[in-house]
Every structure is written in structure tokens, then in C-alpha cells.
Amino acid sequence: MADSAAALSSRGYRILMLAPTSFFGDYGCHVRILEEVHYLQSQGCRVTICTYPLGQNPPGLDLRRTAHIPLRADYEVGSSRHKIALDALLALRALGVMRTVRPDIIHSHLHEGALIGAGLSALWRVPQVFDFQGSMTAEMVDHRFIRSNSRIYHAARRLERLIDHLAPRILTSTARARDLLIDCFGCRPERIVHAPDCVNASAFRPAVRDDTWLQARRAQGIPDDSVAVVYLGLLADYQGTGRLLQAMALLAQRGVRVHLLLGGYPNIEHYRQLAHSLGVAEHVTFAGRVPYRQAPAFLALGDIAIAPKLSKTEGAGKILNYMAVGLPTVVYDTGASREYLAEWGAYAALGDIADLAARIEELAGDPARRFALGEQLRQRAVEAYGWERTGRTILETYNTLLSARHQAKSRA
């Protein structure tokens, strides 16, 4: 390894990135990982990603996958007992990769990655950065993997607190996450670096509303006389999918001409059946999984975007994509939503289905307001949430850790 952070910076860092998830999967934290890697590569860094056996293989990435779980071909998105075995396999895979790559930095995503990374960091004396994207135990509760009043919850909470104190630097995607780490888990403020989720505003941009655009809407089943409400992300109760369909039922009862373009997975058949039972199947298009490269064109078919996520601790990076496409955005009122949308969001009371429907109805009936909000949000996305900003923050964090390491070695 190089003798100084300055020498390393001149030729690019070697980075071992731990991604305890089925990377790449066209959603959430996967997009953050992908865009971080793209930026780091553009700055001459060499990034090796250790991840689970399943997932897409984006071009130009050095992916080192674990072995499959015996007798298990697939597994669920989110919290799952199968992740315990996968994380053990990931730790073994990363240990082998450490020997060949000899990284300068370990960049760990999610709490499982941070726990594995802490062991590797201690063994190899390589600094670790923990990319924090929400509370581990809150996610487990959101996914109904554990109950908040159970003994296993309290044990998991203690483990989460321990993991939060292992890495010398924690990157947070929202200011709310920073507050959570300080107030609930006792982390020192100087260890926390705000590195917000961002968006590629050159790729995600407003549509040219011509005949081609109109034909693309028709191909998705959107009637010409309806306002299109678009969602793209995971389909799950904690993402508000069920509440969104119930809000659509309320709008249909009132005769509001809106059509929901619902992109994402899993649980498609479950929510399709729910739409049928609510009597709104004709007002909803289930587009299924939308590849990330097709996301800008997909979102541009909408008139209004929606992100009814219920989690109070996780980020909501999809909102930035909506903003860059110039879509007025309806959300449940959470800290992350407020941070991104500021005064230009359409906020519904958290979990309130009637209020969610009311915010959609207001925008559906006011084209001038939709246009004004979309312009403001596009401008905000371009000016405040470009990947150059967060990328520089990440590199500066690496520099700080490696400089401190070099100084410690010099004093020894």
C-alpha cells in the first residue's frame, strides 16, 4: 500500500465495497451504490464489489459474488433468515478478496456490511467507511420480520448500536439519519458525514411531450383524458403500496380521472389482486420491473409522482429521480421527504389514506400548479443533488481517514 494518502490520491484508491444485498436490483440503495461506484471510477479509483450471488451485472463493474445457498435458488428482498447464511458466505468471499485486491479503504453498505467490514478492518488495518441508509431494526420491523415489543428486537437493537460504533466514519444519506445516529445510538457527531443521495440530472430529465410520448403513454394503458400518477420502486406495505391502491379507490369513487402507473416488484400479483378487490384494476397499470436505464423514460410518462413510504428512518432516493424529471411529488410527511422536497412537496399526513388521495386530487385538478412545482423541483435537483457533490464528500472522507492512518504510522 502507498505510504501516504497524497500518493494514493494521485493514482486513485483501491476500494473494497461490501454490498450485502442482491446487487444490482434497480431500486433504492442499489442505485446509490451504482452511482457512487461510477463517480469513484471517474476519479481513477478501482472499486471491487463483494455482493450476494443473485443480481444483474452492470457493465464496467468488478463484482465478486458469493456462492449460492445450498438448495436455495432465490430469496426474498429485505429482511430474511436466509441473509444470515448469505452474510457468512459474504464474509468468506470478502476475506479472500482482501488478499488479492489489498484495498486502501473498505466501504461497507448496510449494517451487515459494516459488521463484516469491521472484522476485515481489524485484521488488515485498513480504514472502514460505513454507508448508513437507515436503522437496521426499524427496517426489520417495517418488513414485519420482527415485532418491536419482542425480546429479539431488543437484542437486535443492542447489536445495531454496537455496529454503529465500529467504523471511524459513517456516511448518511439524509440529515434525519445523522440525527438518528446521534440521538438514538449515541454516535459522536464528528464521526458522521452527510453524503446525501443524489441524481444524474442529465439522464433524468423532463419529457418532450410529443406524439412519441403520447403513444408511449397509450402503450402503458394511460387514457388520454387521465392524469398519470407514477411510482417506481419496491412494492411493499412499508413502501405504502397498499395505501396507494386504497387512495386510488377513493379517487375512483369521486370520479377523479387519474391513472396509476405502478412500476416495480416484488409482490406484483398480491397487489394486482388487491387492485381488483378494490375495484380499481382498470385505473392501474402494473408495469413490473423497470430496468434502471429505462427509469428516466418511464417516469417521464407521468404527470404526478408519488412516494408514500411509511418508514421514518430510511431515505427515499426515488424522490430525487422524480424531482429531476420535473414531476410534482406527493409524499407521506417524513423527515427524508421534507429534506428533499422542502417547500415544494405535496405532503399527506403519515399513513393517512384519505389525505394521500386529497393531495393527489388537488394536483390532478391544477395543471398550472403541477407545472410550477415541477420546474422548482427540477431546479432544486440540478443545483443541490448532483453526484459530483456527494462523490467529492466521499473522497474527502477517504482522504481524512488515510491521512490519519499515515500520521499514526509515522509516529509509531
Would you write up a description of this structure?
This protein has 412 residues and is an alpha/beta fold. It contains 16 helices and 13 strands. Helix 2 packs across helix 16 (387-411), helix 3 packs parallel to helix 4 and helix 12 packs across helix 15 (367-384).
Question: Layout of helices and strands, plus pairs?
Answer:
Layout: H1 5-11, E1 14-19, H2 28-42, E2 46-51, E3 62-65, H3 82-101, E4 105-109, H4 110-124, E5 128-132, H5 136-142, H6 151-164, E6 169-172, H7 175-185, E7 192-194, H8 211-219, E8 227-232, H9 241-253, E9 258-263, H10 268-278, E10 284-288, H11 295-299, E11 304-307, H12 318-324, E12 329-332, H13 335-341, E13 346-348, H14 353-364, H15 367-384, H16 387-411
Parallel strand pairs: 1-2, 1-4, 2-3, 4-5, 5-6, 6-7, 8-9, 8-11, 9-10, 11-12, 12-13
Helix pairs in contact: 2-16, 3-4, 9-10, 9-14, 12-15
H-E string: HEHEEHEHEHHEHEHEHEHEHEHEHEHHH
Summarize the amount of helix as a percent range.
40-55%
What is the topology, as strand order, of the major beta sheet?
3-2-1-4-5-6-7
- Extract low-pLDDT stretches: 1-8
Shape: globular
Largest sheet: 7 strands, parallel
Attribute tags:
7-stranded parallel β-sheet, 6-stranded parallel β-sheet, 412 residues, alpha/beta, disordered N terminus, globular
Quick overview:
It is built from 16 helices and 13 strands.
